Amino acid sequence: MDIRFWNQEIETLAQKDLRQLQLTRLRELIGYAMKTPFYHKRLKKAGISSPEDIQDLEDLQKIPFTVKDDLRQAFPKGLLAVDMEQVVRIHSSSGTTGIPTVIYYTAKDLDRWTDLLARGIVATGAGPADVFQNMMSYGLFTGGLGLHYGAERVGLTVIPVGGGNTQRQLQLMRDFKTSVLHITPSYLLHIHQRMPEFRISPADLNLKKAWMGAEPHSENTRLKLQELYGIDIYNSYGLSEMNGPGVAFECAYKKDLHVWEDGYIIEIIDPATGKVLPEGQEGEVVFTNLIRHAMPLLRYRTRDLAFLHPEPCPCGRTGRRMSRITGRTDDMMIINGVNVFPSQIEEILMSIPEVGNNYQIHLTRKEGLDRLAVKVEIYSKLFTGDLSQLDALKAKINDKLRASITINSRIELHEPGALPAFEGKAKRVVDERDKL
Amino acid sequence: MKIKQISVFLENRKGRLYEICSLLGEAGINIRALTIAETETFGVLRMVVDKPAQAAELFRKHHVTVNQTDVVAVEVPDTPGGLANVLKILSDQNVNVEYMYGFVKKFSEKALLVFRFDDPARAHQVLMAAGVTVIGEKDITGL
Amino acid sequence: MIWNEAIETMPLEDLKNLQSERLVKLVRYIYERCPVYKQKLDKAGVSPGDIQGIEDITKLPFTTKLDMRDHYPYGLFSRPQSDLVEIHVSSGTTGNPTLVGYTRDDLKLWGDVMARVLCCAGAKPGDFVQNAYGYGLFTGGLGFHYGALEMGLTIIPASSGQTKRQLKIMQDFKPRILACTPSYCLYMAEEAKELGLDPRQGSWKIGIFGAEPWSEPMRNEIEQAWDMLATDVYGLSEIIGPGVSQECTYKDGLHLFSDVFYPEIIDPDSGVPVPEGSNGELVITTLTKQAIPLLRYRTRDIVSMTSQPCRCGRTSPRTSKIKGRTDDMIIVRGINVFPSQIEHVLLGIEGIHPHYQLVIDRKAHKLDEVEIMVEVDEKIFSDEIKRMSALEQKIRKEIEAILSIGVSVKLVEPKTIQRSEGKAKRVVDKRSI
Predict the structure, then answer these.
(1) Are residues A81 and A293 in contact, defined by beta-carbon separation less than 8 angstroms?
(2) Angle ∠(A119,C111,A139) on CA atoms, nearest 5
(3) The A300-306 sheet, strands edge to edge
(4) Interface with B, mutate which of A384, A386, A389, A391 (most B CBs under 10 A)
(5) C348 touches chain B (CB under 8 A)
(6) A118 — phi, psi (to 5°)?
(7) Which of A76, A94, A128 sits opposite C82 (nearest CB)?
(8) Superfamily of domain A333-435
(9) What is the pLDDT of residue C433?
């Protein structure tokens, strides 16, 4: 096995030293956190008024959890710990309505984050000779720009394609002898299914590996995709609250994901009681971001379920490994890598007068890709019998939904009364996506 | 026993339908049945005429996009439930109706309907077997 | 503020010496490293020794888009793929796309010229930039991203589209600088009004607009609508992306960064330089690029140029806005479109060899809309609406896949597309720019 490191000293630091480093960085972080209105108040209340109040890592548990809603409450600057002049990048989950969440980065924050991404890239064996086609979307979503910067630091040749347009993706892969992809599992499968249409087979390509993220998937999915393409596939995990992708990455052994523990403190808790669980038990993943000073986040609840492997990895990295994501603690749907809450869809539908009260969200999978169908009842008083009017209504609903959830949906119009009624426990989401 | 349906591609623009119909009128071709299906930008006019071959040629001469398809004309009792009975026969035999429409004028006590099936030959068989009267090309011309 | 003051305000004589020095080095560099160029120079009877200074540049042969296409992907590169850290690709006229690549130093150069662009438009340290150019293979997004980073500004990588969200971002973060296409900026003003917002109260005070041609009246409209300073940026991916030239706050022509991109204005037919101030085709030589330096690249854009000094103190020559093209390329929402691309798609759809026409319209400040009219003949006509709709969809999807912008397809009756001398008119541009 070819084991490579980007920063061998830190990546193989003895557990004891790693914990000490975490403590030093945590105390530094508390210093920044105290500068934010949000944490100043919250930490005071918890009896912490300076970094000295954190004596050891156990003291972390004195700090209350931070949740997504706290980010909204703190908008715009409640969690900002530095002068705005020092902020060089903003990523935001801005929708079109409601209060957005925002992530701030200083130039140094970006530099530290990029370095962790470089570690992940090198851990999978990629290097300067590789051509990297980045199929995660660029812009406010951190998936695209994150790996872009990491790969440039390592010296790969980056093709910043973003998502979609399968024909062009294939043409680029063939023409530029792409060797590495960053992609969601569903899109990787989709591309394979459409290859015959363009008379290309995996054998015509120079693909060697793929980094797969943004969507939960099973080990069987990985194995199947590895076989279909004849490549090595590595899991990556991240979320914008923890900078973006690259919080944890698989190494050459592909036995779950090394958390860069000098950058992030990971805890697994019982989502009901908030108690920290012993290593090996499944629970909600909680992170403290040690490398971002512009906007500190302490004990952030991800809503993702996973567990930690207690035993060390043969690659020599001492950062513990977290399992793939096994579930969620809320009703968030992940559709082709995009996070969507049923409430977002409901809000839009209820703002359209031609739409009745009942609706259903229907998820299926075709050619490897998730398909979202939204079934709505038309409001009888506005029905004129004009076919083109119905077409226009469908387009209008889709446009409005896309403005909010960023993805296209197929709109099905139904007669009033055809969908399960709103009262009671009507099933709003029907998920018929078979396992990949 | 299939008959020919003439379909015409139409843009949604004022006066176009009139132009098409007057072409037929001037040539002495009689429309027996017709329907229009429309989308936001275009429509398809479908009709059964007494001289389909002539009609198609006429349209071609005038650069109108035209198509001929096989449809089945069926006699349906003009009583409540008459159509439902015919549809039941088809449904029981898993025959799929793409669309249907009625004749302009009644020629007997029964109503006359045009059916477009995905498999007209089989539909014809099923209807005949159930004793439903199917009208042929000659009958249309002679009507 | 001038970003690179030493260079940007350099006395003309020194600038000329710098250009000479760089050109001599460049020709030698290309000759040694790029076999395709070596052959091209040999064929033209030019050897590196013949180039002693910038005035010798006319001895060099031109480079065209066709050269790029014929030597796709790496033929015109002077560096191996392993030296590249980024690749950008745009769709070509037909067939092969146009490829450009960057070494680490090329990215630094890009960051530098884009920081010059931002400063030239009036950006100050501490400013927020809302970057609404598309991120990805299109160079607009990442170009501005690198410039803002180089200058230490705060970048919001909004990318293109999603207008309501753009406006929400403006309200949420109050960025002073907006970067996008000019037509999109006007479109957003309309959208804002529809949402009950007053654009003049918006936070955007400086706009850096490019990727498509626009006019003085349009500038006035934008400035009135948003109460902002609207400036013009120019560039093309073959040269570097955005960052070739930019208007300063006096808005009197675009400062072309001629220490790195050497400009000539030529008669497109004869290839001979035109007198200063006359219209002609802009030709650019990249003096310091490493990965894919180009000699006398013909941009096909028609401009005029002056070397008179500007009140802002920059000494670089200034070009006019783009006055036209030497080919049939049209630019829609920042995307280059060639009618031949549409033809290619239609021919690729089985059984279709129809007459078609592109209609480009910009309805009352709305975004550019492309409608492709396709004549329906008997081969593709069906009595079933769903088949016709599916055909319409298929054409639309395939064209969108090639162009990367949304289009609408309209099926029309035969002989409805106007023809002149028997040939159908392929493009009807109804925009008043």
Answers:
(1) yes
(2) 60
(3) A264-269, A283-289, A300-306, A327-328
(4) A391
(5) no
(6) -60, -40
(7) A128
(8) ANL, C-terminal domain (3.30.300.30)
(9) 64
How far, CA to CA in Å, does A237 sit from each of A251, A258, A306, A310, A322? Answer: 13, 10, 11, 19, 10
CA distance A217 to A323: 11
Q: Are C63 and C57 in contact (CB under 8 A)?
A: no
Query: How far away is chain A from the Cα of B42, in angstroms, using its nearest Cα?
Result: 10
On whether any CB of chain C is under 8 Å from the CB of A88, the answer is yes
pLDDT mean across residues, chain A: 90
Contact B9/C413, CB-based, under 8 Å?
yes
**Per-residue pLDDT tens over the stretch A56-77:** 999 999 999 999 999 999 988 9
The CATH architecture assigned to A1-328 reads: 3-Layer(aba) Sandwich (3.40)
Domain count, chain B: 2
Domain boundary, last residue among B50, B69, B88: B69
Q: Which residue of A has its CA nearest to B36?
A: A387
User: Can you name the residues that pair with A111 across neighbouring β-strands?
Assistant: none
Backbone angles phi, psi at A316, to 5 degrees: 100, -10
Cβ–Cβ of C385/B65 closer than 8 Å? no
A218 CB contacts (<8 Å, ≥6 apart)?
A: A324, A435, A436
Q: Rounded to the nearest 5 degrees, what angle is found at the Cα of C286, between the Cα atoms of C284 and C287?
A: 125
Q: Best mutation site among B35, B40, B41 for testing chain A: the one with the most A CBs within 10 Å?
A: B40
CB C319 within 8 A of CB C291: no
- Residue A208 pLDDT: 98
Residues 64-83 on A with a CB inside 8 Å of C are: 75-76
Tokens of C201: 């109260």
Rounded Cα distance between A308 and B64, Å, is: 71
Which of B4, B11, B65, B67 best probes binding to C when mutated, by most C CB atoms within 10 angstroms? B65
- Over residues C49-58, the pLDDT tens digits come to 999 999 999 9
- Average pLDDT for B114-131: 89
| CA–CA gap between residue B123 and residue B4 (Å, rounded) | 15
* Residue that is last in its domain, among B53, B69, B85: B69
In chain A, CATH 3.30.300.30 covers 333-435
Task: Supply A388's token pair.
Answer: 């083109």
Residues B12 and B56 in one domain: yes
Tell me: do B60 and B84 sit in the same domain.
no
Q: Which domain holds residue B113?
A: 70-141
For chain B positions 78-137, those within 8 Å of chain C (CB to CB) are: 98, 116
Distance CA C327, CA C344 (A): 18
Q: How far is A391 from chain B (nearest CA, A)?
A: 7
Determine the Cα–Cα distance for residues B72 and B136; give it in Å rounded to an integer: 8
* Average pLDDT along chain C: 91
Q: What is the CATH number of the domain that holds B113?
A: 3.30.2130.10
CB A394 within 8 A of CB A355: no
Structure tokens at A128: 């300067």
Q: Among C377, C383, C389, select the one facing B46 at the smallest CB separation.
A: C383
A393 neighbourhood in chain B, CB within 8 Å: none
Residue spans of chain A under pLDDT 70:
94-98, 380-387, 421-426, 435-436
Instruction: Specify whether B90 is located in the same domain as B104.
Output: yes
Domains of chain C (ranges, CATH numbers): 1-327 (3.40.50.12780), 335-429 (3.30.300.30)
CB pair distance less than 8 Å for B65 and C376: yes
What residues are paired with C405 via a beta bridge? Answer: none
Taking an 8 Å cut-off on Cβ atoms, the answer to whether A165 and C401 are in contact is: yes
A259: β partners: A248
ipTM of the complex: 0.84
Mean pLDDT of C392-396: 89
Same domain, B11 and B48: yes
d(CA C191, CA A360): 30
